[in-house]
Amino acid sequence: MQKQPWFHTLISLIGAIALLAIAKALDNFLTLRQRFAQASFEYDQVLLAQIVVGVFMVVAWTALGWYCLFSRRPGRGLCIALLILGGFVILAPYAGMWAGLPILQIRLFELITDLVHASGIFIAVLGGLGLVRKPS
Q: Packing angle between helix 115-132 and helix 76-91, nearest 10 degrees?
């Protein structure tokens, strides 16, 4: 496999940022559906929405992973950028603690229920896998 050109790196980074934006929009959509279901006691649509959103996110993660790792050999710059982007998204909830705001109890299982944080973890792992992947 050839090493990726600069536009492949740019498309990969734009794809990662777009994945985070889509995850945030889907989080908001699911929150609105949940509020509507609580008000109307109709939870069938929430379950269907969660299934559809889950399948969509798995497809999006698979597409980004394939494009970044397998379509061409990832460069070190891309992998480091993905690690930084994913790390920033993962550590963003803790920024309030570092800024001196009151400490909130954030548990890992509460953190991962948010699609944005799960996508951040995926992007960071994707960057790490790109760094340890041996050239073929």
A: 150
**Three-state SS at 5:** coil
As for how many domains the chain has, the answer is: 1
pTM above 0.90, yes or no: no
User: What is the rounded CA–CA span in Å between residue 123 and residue 117?
Assistant: 10
State how far the Cα of 89 lies from the Cα of 119, in Å rounded to an integer.
Answer: 9
pLDDT tens profile 20-39: 999 989 998 988 998 988 88
Residue 75 is part of which domain span?
Answer: 6-132
Cβ(133)–Cβ(74) below 8 Å: yes
User: Would 1 be classed as within a structural domain?
Assistant: no
The half-sphere exposure of 73 on its side-chain side, counting CA atoms within 13 A, is 11
Does residue 35 belong to any structural domain of this protein?
yes
